Amino acid sequence: MNKHHMILLVSLLLPATALADQTLLTGTSEVESLTAEYVDASIEIGRISSSVLSGAFTGTVSSTKFYFHINSGTYNGYSCSLENWTAEIGGNLYSGVNRSLWTVPASPYDGSAIDGDIGAVKSDTTDLIDITSFLGTQYSGTFTATKISSTPGTVYNTTSMPLDLETRSFSGSAVGYYNGDVDAALLHLDPDMSVFGISGLPDLRITLVDYVCDGGSGIAFDIWDGIDGLGGIYGTLYGKLREYPNGDVVIEHAGTAPPIPIPGAVWLLGSGLACLVGVRWRRKGASGG
Fold first, then answer.
1. Cβ–Cβ under 8 Å, residues 80 and 95
2. Residue 127: predicted pLDDT
3. Are 231 and 113 spatial neighbours (Cβ–Cβ below 8 Å)?
4. With CB atoms counted within 10 Å of each terminal CB, which end of the chain scores lower, N or C?
5. 125: how many CB neighbours lie within 10 A of its CB?
6. What is the reported pTM?
7. Burial of 247 per CB tally in 10 Å (0-12, 13-18, 19+)
């Protein structure tokens, strides 16, 4: 399975008793450095992929993807994708978004975050996508998605694209399912997408995070599209990390509720989901990036 184009889906029901927990991050951040470099970059708009799901759930999923890749400079090889997906499970259609980050060769931040009718995360250590006990998810488990077709989109290349680099330190606290102090180092990669000369491109921003909390440490990534942020957080605070329009930065945890047996009737009653993807920290100091 191609992890760069993989998309995952699952059936779901929404009982109030099976919701996972959230943690709200609050605190302040401080700019450590601001630098810039010029890089070659490319984008692909409109790639369409279809996949078949296997594992505890079966079905099909298709997605339309926006892809960005840095071809030169210090961060040569960093790539991300923003995908809109639609899944068919048991004759019903479901939809959502996926954000993925990876590098060539692989980096610790590689992974995906899936949102919409169900939540999921994936790291680069396995082809399995973990939907364990996310907010709004009744079922736990891991799944794979095998690509069966892919139609390329339109590719655009540019040279000497300005890439702003910002490092920040974050000092704050977490309240909710996890309570305690959280300190983090954040690196923002902010490409100037206007040099492609195409209207409607996302206000793309990639954030790489190394964090330490009372319970341990880990890494995270976020992809901001100009509207909101979504990413994956790994280690002690494993799950999805998102920024809401009001600026709140929230972790939705995986693995905080026990697995629930999956009845056969789920194929008639469930809804579906998913793709690969991310983590956005607030651009302004109040939420850490």
1. no
2. 82
3. yes
4. N
5. 11
6. 0.81
7. exposed
Give tens-digit pLDDT for 149-165. 999 999 999 999 999 99
Residue at token pair 């010029």: 38
Residue type, 1: M
Whose tokens are 């609050």? That residue is 26
Pairing outcome for strands 79-89 and 59-70: antiparallel
